[in-house]
Amino acid sequence: MPRQSERYALDLNIWIYASDCWRHAVTQDVSRTGMFVACPPLPAGTPVVVAFDHDGARVANPARVTHCLAPDDARELGRVPGVGVAFYDPIDIGFAVAIDNLVRRARTQQPREFHIVVADAELRVLERLSTALDGAGFSVATASTGLELFGACLRQKPHVVLVDRATPMVDGFQLIERLACDDRLASIPVVVMTNDPNDIEPAFQKGAADVILKPFTLVEAIARVRRVAATPRRAERVLLSGSIGELGLAAVLTMMELEKKTGRLVASNGHAAWVDIVEGRVVDAGWSLGTSHPRAVVMSLLDWQQGTFKLVASPRRLRDSELSMPVTHLLLEQARLRDEADEAARVS
User: Fold this and answer.
1) What percentage of residues in the chain have a pLDDT greater than 70?
2) What percentage of the chain has pLDDT greater than the value 90?
3) Do residues 244 and 267 lie in contact, with contact meaning Cβ atoms separated by under 8 Å?
4) Which regions of the chain carry the CATH code 3.40.50.2300?
5) How far apart are CA 141 and CA 159, in angstroms?
6) What string of H, E and C letters represents the secondary structure of the chain?
7) CA dist 319 to 154, 201, 323, Å?
8) Which of 75, 136, 140, 230 is buried deepest, with most CB atoms within 10 A?
9) How confident is residue 320, by pLDDT bands cut at 50, 70 and 90?
C-alpha cells in the first residue's frame, strides 16, 4: 500500500473556489491527501474548494491552504509561485476515487529503469526534486555538494545527473569536467539547473546534455531528464592513449597542431584535466584543482611527468574562441618560463 504522503508531479487543470469566486489553476504535484497548485497567493488557513474533471465528470472537495509560496521565495527555489492545499476529511467518495486513479496512473507511468543523482545545496529543492523523480519511476540518489555527487556516481553509476550550477565545493560546470576526465564516468550525461540565462551557452560548450532554466515545473524537469536518460549515448572514440611518462603531453599537442586535429585531450595523474583543441589550436582547458585560466592549466600540464592520457574525438562542436592558442607558442612560452626559473635558481 503506497504511503499517504507520496506525491507525484502532475500537470492537471483544476478550479479553486476562494473568496466567493472560481479561479482556474494548474497543479504541480498531487497526493491522496493534498496538492500543490500554481496560482496567485492565498493566506494559509484559507478555506477553498478544489474541483476538476475526471473521466467525463466533475468532482469537488473542500480543502484548506496549508502554505503559500510567494514569488520571491519561489524564485529563490527555482519554482513557480502557488499554494499547498490539504483536502478536508472525510473526502467525497467520487473525489477520492478520482484522486486515487490519478495517483495510481502517475505511479505506474514510468518503469523504474533509470537511476539519477540529483545535487542542490537548497534542501527544500533537493527534497522536492527527489520525491517527484522517485514518484516518476526513477531510482534517486541525492547530494548537497558536488563532491557528494561525484561519490554517489562512483557508488552506483547513474543514467543521468541533475545538478545545480551553484552546487558548492564542485559546481555544476566543474562537475561536467570532472566526470569527463574519469573513464568510469565520462559517459554520464549531465543536466544543469540554473537561474542565470547567461549560463546556458557555457553549459552546452562544456558538454552539458541539457540546461533547465529556473523557475521550472516538476513535470518539465522530469520530462527533460527522462529524455536525456533514454537517449543512447554514442561511444567515445579514442584516437590515442598512453602513459605521460612514455609520451609527453607536449608531443601529443604538437602532433595535434601538425595534423590540425580537433578533439579533447584528457589527462590524469591523481588529478583530472582536459584540453580542447580545434584544428590544432588550444581553445579551452580546465582541471579538478579549481578555476584557472586555460593558458595556466596548459602550462602546468606540460610539466606533468607521470600519469595517463587519452585523446578522444569530441562528439560536440568545440568552440574556437578568443582563447585560441597555437601549441608552438605555448611550448615556446613554457621553455622561456623554465629558463627564467633556472636562472633565478642559479642567482639565488
Assistant:
1) 90
2) 24
3) yes
4) 110-230
5) 12
6) CCCCCCCEECCCEEEEEECCEEEEEEEEEECCCEEEEECCCCCCCCEEEEEEEECCEEEEEEEEEEEEECHHHHHHHCCCCEEEEEECCCCCHHHHHHHHHHHHHHHHCCCCCEEEEEECCCHHHHHHHHHHHHHCCEEEEEECCHHHHHHHHHHCCCCEEEEECCCCCCCHHHHHHHHHCCCCCCCCCEEEEECCHHHHHHHHHHCCCEEEECCCCHHHHHHHHHHHHHCCCCCCEEEEEEECCCCCHHHHHHHHHHCCCCEEEEEECCCEEEEEEECCEEEEEEECCECCCHHHHHHHHCCCCCCEEEEEECCCCCCCCCCCEEHHHHHHHHHHHHHHHHHHHHHC
7) 30, 11, 10
8) 136
9) very low
Residue 332 in contact with residue 291, Cβ under 8 Å?
A: no
Give CATH for domain 110-230: 3.40.50.2300
Amino acid at 192: V
Domain with CATH 2.40.10.220 in the chain: 8-106
Give the residues across from 27 on adjacent strands: 37
Q: Give the pLDDT of residue 290.
A: 63
Closest CA to 33 of 86, 83, 91, 94: 86
**CATH, range 8-106:** 2.40.10.220
User: pLDDT digits over 21-55, tens only?
Assistant: 999 999 988 888 999 998 888 999 999 999 999 88
Q: Name the more confident of 97 and 323.
A: 97
Is 23 exposed, middle or buried (CB count within 10 Å of its CB: 0-12, 13-18, 19+)?
Answer: middle
Does the pLDDT of residue 155 top 50, yes or no?
Answer: yes
